[in-house]
Amino acid sequence: MNRIQVGHDASFRVGFSGHSGHLRLEPLPPVERPNPLSSLPDFISPPAFARETPETIKEYIEDTYLLPRLDPDEFSPEKVGRQWDFDWFDRAKVPLEPSLPRSVVVQKWELPFRRSKKESASGKWEPISEEVEVSDLMVGAQDTGPLPRMVGPAKDFIRGSINNRPFRPGGLDDSQSLDRIPPLGASNGEWVQEVLNGGPALVVPPSFKQGLDLGDLKAYSHSWKVYKGQSALKGKSEENLNKLSIQFDDLLKKAWEEDDVAESKEDGHSPESDSIKLEVQLDEVEASSNVGDLESSVLDEILSVESGSKPGLDGTSDDGGRQKKEAWAVSGGNEGIADHFHELVPDMALDFPFELDTFQKEAIYYLEKGDSVFVAAHTSAGKTVVAEYAFALASKHCTRAVYTAPIKTISNQKYRDFCGKFDVGLLTGDVSLRPEASCLIMTTEILRSMLYKGADIIRDIEWVIFDEVHYVNDVERGVVWEEVIIMLPRHINIVLLSATVPNTIEFADWIGRTKQKQIRVTGTTKRPVPLEHCIFYSGELYKICESETFLPQGLKTAKDVHKKKNLSTGGGGSGTYSGPPSAAHDGARAQRRENPGRGKQNKYSGSQKVGNFYGTGGGNQNSSGSQSNWGSRRSEASLWLLLINKLSKKSLLPVVIFCFSKNRCDISADKMTGIDLTSSSEKHEIHVFCERAFSRLKGSDRNLPQVIRVQSLLRRGIGVHHAGLLPIVKEVVEMLFCRGVVKVLFSTETFAMGVNAPARTVVFDSLRKFDGREFRQLLPGEYTQMAGRAGRRGLDKIGTVVVMCRDEIPDERDLKHVIVGSATRLASQFRLTYIMILHLLRVEELKVEDMLKRSFAEFHAQKKLPEKQQLLMRKLAQPTKTIECIKGEPTIEEYYDMYTEAEQHSNQILETVMQSSAAQQFLTLGRVVVVKSQSVQDHLIGVVVKAPSASSKQYIVLVLKPHLPSTLQTPSESGNLQDKKSGAFPEGHFILPKAKRALEDDYYTSTTSRKASGTINIKLPYHGAAAGVSYEVRGIDNKEFLCICIHKIKIDPVGLLEDANNAAYSKTVQQLLELKSKGHKYPPALDPLKDLKLKDMTLVETYYKWNSLLQKMADNKCHECVKLEEHIKLAKELKRHKEEVNALRFQMSDEALQQMPDFQGRIDVLQEIGCIDADLVVQIKGRVACEMNSGEELICTECLFENQLDDLEPEEAVALMSALVFQQKNTSEPSLTPKLSQAKQRLYNTAIRLGELQAQFKLQISPEEYAQDNLKFGLVEVVYEWAKGTPFADICELTDVPEGLIVRTIVRLDETCREFRNAAAIMGNSALHKKMEAASNAIKRDIVFAASLYITGL
């Protein structure tokens, strides 16, 4: 286009716009440029599309498709602040948590000197790939959190499911899965060292054909420090143990490293600067040409770990490098925490309206640090503060906390206490309130079930609080605490609250070792309200203990009064008189209620009616003694009246009176007929409270006899509390007592454990209790727990504890033991259960042996394992001695085994057989015998030459010696008949040839014809030689006879003992030699049946075996070896060493666990009934058994699989199931329908069969006891009628079981129905599922399932 010429003065110009040809006007600068850069006019714009290049194309693709870009319409300034509702989760095309692959392909890194010589075409080493399971590569990750798995359905979030895997327990580092080691290249840094030295890099990913091209890599010229990782989870001791195994490849590796250093020196570079400095944290052992020296030096290092300071292999002290013994239970070292508490914890998660105690500050400080805490303090000391703070931390951290309690009552009460402060939920067997809350209160059994079933809520839990930890001593339920502690995952911290126990550190150490985390131990032995202990006798209180110090003077005063009273009443000081308590001091009101003629009637009221603990009562707790007439009852009532008046005048009310029997509580409260302790305003408060509480009951239930009776007592300020009360009645009593309107409460021991309601005074009706098996004295821990209820913090300066004394005063020793004695130690009650075994067998990662090892019972044995391992290494490192046999292949081990076994039998034989009268009859002159040798070489064959006499109790026996003495002593030289001096032949001994012997020295001469006089003219022991054999005449006891032979030879006692005739000796020796030359070392022994007349078959078998061993020993080539004694000692030492090594290995193995035999027996039982198969894989029957928590799992499972409930109606089925959960032993016999009777017998037969099966597999179970303990049919009729709709008042008339136990059984039955319903779903039995649902609905009604007052409030 030609340029259009316009005027020079024009301020604009006309031009074309782009390629479209439109005209436009463009402003011009004042002056035109004289030299334009191109011929293109300035007013023509560049083309619309620029020239495309690879760079522009890449930029366009990235800008259009790869870079995120907002929609300009949606995100315009006009729409600022707008929000979009978009359901991302519903529209997602992929699962939120895709399942992990089971295996992956990884490269296997190898040391250069181990690589294959076959190289690739490129001339570089190409690593091989291998398939590895994902779980193998997650060793480190699994330890820090739960096992990788998908989240289950929402309905199983809280309770879990039998299909879920449990989370990995914390501290389970040495389980089977952690033994699998990932490839070397994935866990250490040796491949980095190779790359930095210029070696080939791994550039091709596994399963790929082509990788990255990194070019030629050169060595990095800077110094690096590469530290060996500690990912192998092994301490120094284990690594040192591995060094003992010196492999040839390891030496080559060392040589390869040295070659690298040599090459670097040749290049002119110093190895310090050019090569990598590999600084291993543990001392390396330099390879030496002598491998034996290397092993010994390594061994020396290992064995010196536990000893004092020793120089290491490099000549320096290795103390600093040793791993210090870690203390898991940390106590002390926290003196400054209380003083600087607010500086250490400036922003508390929860503020308290009072000043915290020292132990509370310490515990809170450790909670803030994320440590686990064990708090041991007395009752009412304020341990709950620690639990509250853990709840506050969970709320602050947006996590969860769980509070577990041993008793359902505690759970309900804590729910009420915490409801106003935290977001609280409650989970018990029959109640589930707000399970989504951040703070959950539940029983320990519920938490155990959640752990076994892998509930997903476990992921969110930060704290688990165990209250009343000393309940671990409970025989029945203590095992639950140990199971839960062992099963808790590692990310959960633990808070333990316990009464003071002697072995707090030991228990905390066990938990720390089990969970592999430190446990901070704190607490106090100081009571917030000090206690004084008194005894109440004859109307007076005598102080016997104050400030934990026993006061003998008060006890002495009481005993003096007791003595005077007995003397004044003519009791003779015997202490058996128990008339009405004297009211001479302070009891005018009691005197008016008595009459003078009642002394004889009440003589045995104390001992017969209340029992006797050295006069304190309590032996017969049911108050049904022979003296239960009006007079004795009147005396008991006046005694309580006297005590209440005394406490009231001293302002010591309210009082809790502990009686160790439900009947005792009821009877004692009913006797308080003439006492009223409440004011009119208090009566009104009690009346209004009871009306509101009982208004939720239906009409017939409000008029139950128990409800009416308790209301009547409460109006007078008297309460009763025991397990026989209805739950709602019990809660009314507890709440009114906490309000202070109930002045006197008769209670059983459960009140001290389950209710946080302190009183001014505590009274012990007795110091003896029945524990379910026997009457026994109270333990100090039990006394302390109950006495701790005395003294209300903030209200009382001192708490009072009173011990009732009726007819006698307790001994000082017994009172001291109970009051100031040491509390009961925490002891393991761990035992294996079938449901525990089945739950653990469901998961590969968890083994039953792991659970057994981590129990408190095995704590001390497992704690000593490192020491035993070290001792085993010492034993194995000892140089072993070899036995060099001069007769060929050594058989000394076989000979020593026979010798040892014969020695074991010999004691029984010698004591039982040889000293019997039958054996003594054969020990006559000429009887051939085998005599015990004084050395181990050989036993001696001999002959009896003289029987015991009145002057000598020993047998005189001639025995053949195994070899000739070094100096020959002829009879003429050694006997006491000649005075010749015996000659010595230092060169040895010889026997004269026959031609040169005298006549009397020949082998055979005529025997002496004269009669023996019984005198012994030779000096014993008498030594000699004849026929080339040395002999000895000596006296022995009958215990030295090993064997009495069947042979008897003719001897000349005169020639042997009186004349010392050589010919007599020669003939006797020849006869013995002839017996030995008949093919046996020893002649045959007497027959135990025909000759010795033995009747015991076991003894006869032992006798035969023993004689056989003696013969085998004689036939062994070692028997007559000259080195036998030396080799026997060496074999004994080797045998002992081998046994010690085997014993150590056994102690370190799983077989040494205490409950391993029980475990093997239970496994056999489960296999026999089909719960598991031969490979220990849980079958459907075992999965059903896993659902059974409320009843005995084997009986419940067999009942279901035998279809025992199919022919029963829902009411009959639930009635039969009551036998699985009812617990009281002695009840009245129920009246059952024929159908129920048949079902009852069928279920009982199943239990007997299971008991016999367990006894068959060596479990300590009696079939009858097993059936009776797990099946109690006392409430079958009651539950049947209740399920049919009978009112509660009517079913109570059918049995003598207390109302409270009836309600408790039916409530537990509802849980059992739910378990059976879940089991039916697993089995696929829809009919049983519907039946259990109908049965559950039939029993859930009225007073039995009335809501708790703690939960609903008033």
TrEMBL record:
It is found in: Cytoplasm. It comes from Vitis vinifera (Grape). The lineage of its organism: Eukaryota, Viridiplantae, Streptophyta, Embryophyta, Tracheophyta. Residues 364-519 form the Helicase ATP-binding domain. The keyword Ribosomal protein does not apply. Residues 586-597 have a biased composition (Basic and acidic residues). The keyword Cytoplasm applies. Keywords: ATP-binding, Cytoplasm, Helicase, Hydrolase, Nucleotide-binding, RNA-binding. Residues 643-841 form the Helicase C-terminal domain. Residues 621-630 have a biased composition (Low complexity). This is DExH-box ATP-dependent RNA helicase DExH11. Residues 306-325, 561-630 are annotated as: Disordered. It comes from the Eukaryota.
